[in-house]
Amino acid sequence: MKKNKVAFITGITGQDGSYLAELLLKKNYIIHGLLRRTSILNIERIQDIINKYEKIGKLNLHYMDLTDTSSISNLIIKYKPHEFYNLASMSHVGISFYTGEATLNINTLATYRILESILKNHKKCKFYQASSSEMFGSTPPPQNEKSSFNPQSPYGISKVSAFHITKYFRQAHGLFASNGILFNHESPRRGLNFVTRKITHSLARILSGHEKKIHLGDISTRRDWGHSKDYVRGIWMILQYKKPEDFVLSTGKNYSIEDFIKKVFKILDLNWKDFVTTNNKNFLRPSEVRSLQGDSSKARKLLKWKPEYDLNALCREMLLNDLKLYGMNLEEAKKIAKKLSKN
Ligand code: NAP
Ligand code: F7E
């Protein structure tokens, strides 16, 4: 009988980690999710798979700390994973301007710690690094694997360094270590302080009477947004490719934050200008990435990967999910919206 593959996932409690774990469990993997200690147990996104798979030993959770090399090495030595997905990071670009040192420690040095431990203890393990389109920074679109990196934030800098660390362990030490350079991807599981989820969640709060306005920063910046479910499929495909390489995953489309707002408000026939304030200084960044639009032709050709969701479907799924959190379906929300428009 074929043995189940064993995968480690850091960041399993996050958006991508939770979808990736679901995908790998369907593929019959045994998963080890590596968690940090938090004062409130933060397992909401993986509660369903815990209920289903923990008892039967297919999903195992372990505490570790990304700043503590031995906590990572001990687990690698004990469980000898076939694949290691490093998704944990301080992933908020805006907050990284205030926590630069910690961002570098978690996002950059942890990558080094993990790869060094794989090299010393279990060289056969394949490694995936969650690299980011934020690394391109001010390089004009379209951006692909050959574009230069011009990061504009501590987050971007941390990811560029981790990208090169991954490449270094591949080239100098022969590890199967690949970077996925992923453009923005969202879902109903997106954290509440990223702009897309902030918009859909705050709109649900406005309709349910909890808020009056959505306060945003610069809404003229442009992003290439996909769905996390499509992107975790691509992440898995990157590690199944015959050799370690770096791949861009993106939709190839580019919209402003204003376009995203308009799409969401249109679902409820509301005029967004009545509910959104912009250029709020709390959400402006010292330097911005103005426009991201990925060219993912390499992944489409070599991995046969392509995204299935478009932005309209993504907006709708996110809004419906947030309406549901506040006890509304679409019809009820439309009725409330109509009343709000008249006032
Ligand atoms: P996310 O929802 O913010 O999840 C981040 C995960 O990292 C969470 O599980 C978090 O744990 C964990 N984490 C943060 N700091 C940690 C620490 N000090 N020790 C241990 N774990 C820690 O991010 P995501 O959207 O899923 O993104 C996954 C990865 O892809 C990240 O590396 C991100 O930088 C990268 N990326 C994301 C995008 C995107 O658009 N989503 C695009 C390109 C690259 P807690 O739950 O305890 O906070
Ligand atoms: O901002 C602008 C903001 O925080 C998008 C992370 O997953 O993708 C993500 O980083 C844009 C920026 O995502 C608000 O200034 C306006 O121009 O949703 P975001 P991000 O910075 O693109 C990359 C690829 C990653 O790798 C990251 O991990 O929206 N914006 N007003 C705002 N942004 C936020 N968060 N909040 C606002 O109120």
Q: What ligands does this structure carry?
A: NADP nicotinamide-adenine-dinucleotide phosphate, ligand F7E
Supply the number of helical segments.
12
Look at the helices and sheets and give the structural class.
alpha/beta
User: In what order do the strands lie side by side in the largest sheet?
Assistant: 3-2-1-4-5-6-11
Q: From the alpha-carbon coordinates, what is the Rg to the nearest angstrom?
A: 20 Å
> Within the CATH hierarchy, at the fold level, what is the topology of the largest domain?
Rossmann fold
Whole-Å distance between the termini? 67 Å
CATH architectural arrangement of the largest domain: 3-Layer(aba) Sandwich
Average of the residue pLDDT scores = 97
Class of the largest domain in CATH?
Alpha Beta
Number of strands: 13
- CATH homologous superfamily annotation of the largest domain: NAD(P)-binding Rossmann-like Domain
Order of helices and strands: EHEHEHEHHEHEEHEEEHEEHEHHH
Number of domain modules: 2
Largest sheet: 7 strands, parallel
Helix content: 40-55%
